[in-house]
């Protein structure tokens, strides 16, 4: 279980990642940081496209960065949305993708410039079917 200090550090990493956001259309920067089971932090930002539907969210970017480096298990996630005061949680598509590589008990923290929300992956995606059938060794 990630400690409060680890979550604070992870959130700081997510905030830094938001500075790399490519968001000329929405002007809404998002940064995400994932703590790998190996202790490594993987971060990502949203990357928009003029063909709007091709936009990649920060959370999926971070997950793919980790998987591309050989990490298939993340124990905590932090999301920073500095352009909002309200906390903004991950979109439905990202919840599904993240659940492939995160247990229901994994800690999730998200926030904008105001207060942060602390939940678990299970809170974000309850009754997650087929979770245990993931092919972690393939
Ligand atoms: N966005 C994310 O990166 N993550 C989310 O969970 C919500 C939305 C991005 C997509 C788009 O670039 C911008 O935020 C506005 O929707």
Report what the structure shows:
This protein starts with a helix and ends in a 14-residue tail after the last helix. The chain has four helices and five strands, in the order αββαβαββα. Helix content is 28%, strand content 24%. It has a single domain (4-134), classed as Cytidine Deaminase, domain 2 (3-Layer(aba) Sandwich). With 138 residues, it is an alpha+beta fold. The protein has helices at residues 4-18, 58-68, 92-99, 121-124, and strands spanning 31-36, 41-45, 74-80, 102-111, 116-120. The relative contact order is 0.17. The model has no long low-confidence stretch (mean pLDDT 94). A five-stranded mixed sheet has the order 2-1-3-4-5. Bound molecules: tetrahydrodeoxyuridine. Tetrahydrodeoxyuridine binds next to α2.
Write the layout of secondary structure elements.
Blueprint: H1 4-18, E1 31-36, E2 41-45, H2 58-68, E3 74-80, H3 92-99, E4 102-111, E5 116-120, H4 121-124
Parallel strand pairs: 3-4
Antiparallel strand pairs: 1-2, 1-3, 4-5
Bound molecules: tetrahydrodeoxyuridine.
């Amino acid at each position: 279980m990630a400690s409060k200090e680890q979550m604070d550090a992870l959130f700081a990493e997510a905030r830094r990642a938001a500075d790399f956001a490519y968001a000329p259309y929405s002007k809404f920067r998002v940064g995400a940081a994932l703590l790998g089971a190996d202790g490594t932090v993987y971060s990502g930002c949203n990357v928009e496209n003029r063909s709007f539907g091709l936009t990649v969210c920060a959370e999926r970017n971070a997950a793919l960065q980790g998987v591309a480096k050989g990490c298939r298990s993340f124990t905590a996630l932090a999301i920073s949305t500095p352009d909002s005061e309200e906390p903004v949680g991950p979109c439905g598509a990202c919840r599904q993708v993240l659940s492939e590589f995160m247990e229901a008990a994994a800690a999730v923290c998200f926030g904008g410039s105001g207060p942060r929300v602390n939940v678990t992956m299970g809170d974000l995606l309850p009754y997650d079917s087929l979770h245990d059938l993931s092919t972690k060794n393939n």
